[in-house]
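Quick illustration, no need to memorize.
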Amino acid sequence: MPELKSLLEKVIGIAHEADAAVMEIYNSGDFEVEMKEDDAQPGYISPLTKADKAANQIIEAGLKKISDYPIMSEEGSHKIQADKFWCVDPIDGTKEFIARNGEFTVNVGLVENGEPILGVVSAPAQDVIYYGAKGYGAFRQASSKQAQKITAKFDGQVPVVAVSRSHLNPETEKFLEELGGYQLLKSGSSIKFCLVADGTATLYPRLGESHLWDTAAADAILRAAGGIIAAVTTGQPLVYNPSELINPHFLVSAANRSDLLGR
């Protein structure tokens, strides 16, 4: 898909621009943390920094220059009515950003007819970027090294399960108990998707609430890498309906370990 490849290259450039602004604030230590209420989950309070705002401004401005698709962003508009739209989380893992552990990401995804078809996930504090598009494949680029194509295939003997550093709830703990033998890999943000996409991890259970913008970009990369994502209730891939902001609980697995989805 030449059109998607060209668009992907432009989005990578936008993400790098956002990365630079985010890292300037990150390195300064001047976060200006405030608390905000989630309009999709009334009563739920989450942190917001000036880095979130700066990245969002850069990303939205950049996307408006390269397309006329509407933009759904965590820090912008949530009211989108379109078959094709951008889905943006300027900083996923704000808690990790504040904790300064480097496990936060800049996320830009493109959704068409409910399917994420393009995604860029950058982890600027780790100097790594993941990207992919439908029909093009998925890639990981560390520092200034050449990008490497990635495949969601796990070759180890013991499953490696990626779990949230900040959201390890009782449902996930029960899932792990039923799974049996495994190695645990804790990480923040959408990096967990990417760890399955590049074969580092075997499985990522998300048995808690998440929003479309939390997952769209990384989900696109996962699918482009051949990985599997399935809603717990239906066993089918997530559908990105702009009128339903909250995802169902889901499981992500390497292509060759779909057996773990049923445990």
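The longest strand covers residues 84-92.
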